[in-house]
Amino acid sequence: MSDHEVAHVFDDQRRAFTPYGLTCVRWRPSLMHRPDHHNEIELNLLRSGSLTYLLRGRRVTIQPGRLVAFWALVPHQIVEFEGDSPYYVATIPLSSFLQWNLPGGFANRILGGEVIQAPESTGESYDFGLFERWLHDVEADMPERLDIVLLELEARMRRLALSCAAEPGLTPEHLRLPLDAHHSSKVERMAGYVATHYRQPIQVKDIGKAVGLHPDYATALFRKTFGMTLSEYLLDHRISHAQRMLTATHTQITTIAYEAGFNSISRFNAAFKKACGVTPRQYRKQHQLN
Q1: Mean pLDDT, range 144-165, rounded to an integer
Q2: How does residue 135 score in pLDDT terms, banded at 50, 70 and 90?
Q3: pLDDT at position 176, please?
Q4: pTM (2 decimals)?
Q5: Torsions phi, psi of 199, nearest 5?
Q6: Among the listed residues 109, 73, 78, the one whose alpha carbon sits nearest the alpha carbon of residue 92
Q7: Taking the C-alpha atoms of 281, 283, 289 and 290 in order, what is their torsion angle to the nearest 10 degrees?
Q8: How far apart are CA 86 and CA 7, in angstroms?
């Protein structure tokens, strides 16, 4: 492997929520000893082998030759892999993603925390060629080339949305609110604020205040973008945190409840069962890693 082809590995000392920005690099498969979370849309493409992420307390395996997209603000951790061939990773700033006004069913599933994999691996050479071009253009760090990379990333996301259009839950409707740069920045900051403060006793008014918006307007803007209220999004982060701890640790359930941001064990149990269909204890029994 030449110097140009040196692959990155995850830095366990990397500060949480530190943005990557617009990037395209090669990564070497390795186990992650803690989750990563950053406020970009992440794309993965493997030539061979596989990666298994822990996301929302569940294992998700990435197959070779299939483009994968997910919102990396959702904590994600590689807990298993096969093979040692480098793979491609690209990150798209959330503000850019929101301004593209992609088909609503597709965008909402990504923003809802799902991992979207291309239905099949046709056109492999096309995707690998794109990633190589993006890698070179990002390394060049020239504004004109970076603009082209963003245009090509938008086009590839639109193709991915079309290829997934037949999947259940994906509809041709578009995001209900086309976002300009000002609004997308506000929405991105709200999402980031929740992601970094959900373990604290925050409310919608605190989120609105943090971005300089009235709580009612903040809620309306967020709901039109994400298809859920700020309260639902806050609860989703707390439930996801609990799922992750139930899966990957032996921490007592009462401790998990409070660490996830719930102010009582009864509210935690009720919210968790409503969201997951089982009690926290049952969830741990079904999903805990060896």
Answers
A1: 93
A2: very high
A3: 37
A4: 0.77
A5: -80, -5
A6: 73
A7: 50
A8: 6
